[in-house]
Amino acid sequence: MPKNFVITGSTRGIGHGIADSLLARGHGVVISGRSQSSVDAAVESLTAAAVAGGGKAHGIACDITQRAQLQALWDGAIEALGRVDVWVNNAGISNRRQRVGELLEADVRQVAETDLLGMMHATQIAMRGMVTQGSGTIYNMEGFGSSGMTTPGMSLYGSSKFALTYFNKCMIAEARGTPLKICYLSPGIVVTDLLRQDMAGTSGEDWERTKRVYNILADRVETVTPFLADGIATEQPNGARVAWLTSAKAAGRFMGALFHKRQLLTDADRPSA
Known about the structure:
Elements: E1 4-7, H1 13-24, E2 28-33, H2 36-45, H3 47-53, E3 56-61, H4 67-81, E4 86-89, H5 105-133, E5 136-141, H6 155-175, E6 180-186, H7 193-199, H8 204-217, H9 221-233, E7 241-243, H10 247-256
Parallel strand pairs: 1-2, 1-4, 2-3, 4-5, 5-6, 6-7
Helix pairs in contact: 1-3, 1-9, 4-5, 5-6
């Protein structure tokens, strides 16, 4: 049974890959990004998948730091699709790795406003709309820090994801006994522009350690997103987690690294700061 999806931050990266897989499976998807030009380009790039699978792609520009634009995204999705079955809070940004004493004021503000406050506002708007329509599922995107794991230089991004976990737990509890479901979407480590932005602050031993770990655990967008799309298109219980890189899979990767070397990243992939 086809469903209707809204995916924030879906003009590129993981969001774009999920949209591509959903359209190829016949679902309706609203693509969203900050600028109308990037949204239009993304919708055009997804035409082949939509035609092949019978899905319907629509594009609406939305800066998730602006609550009014988030409300307009919901309203536009309802106008285009009739209802929204699944809302995915995927949009997010990162800063290059910096120790706390080096953090730039602009980075602190932008990461907090996008990754945390934007997600909170979007969740509330989607929640209210889904209660009105009678049902719906919201997925909030996990990332480094969601589990409480820490690493030097990632305090800002990691804090936003740790806060997301607490927020989601509260929402899951509040959603019990209602037609609304709050869930987690966990892509693991995926080679995207966001990941490259984070790596821009690494050097020396930090870069070598990052490269070594990512070559064991990371994956490409086209590998991960079909799995994520199938997971969110399947009816899940309240509080479910659709996770690509599970603890068991990570352990298996580390064991396998003793016998087989994966080369997703080389020194040539290291971006400049």
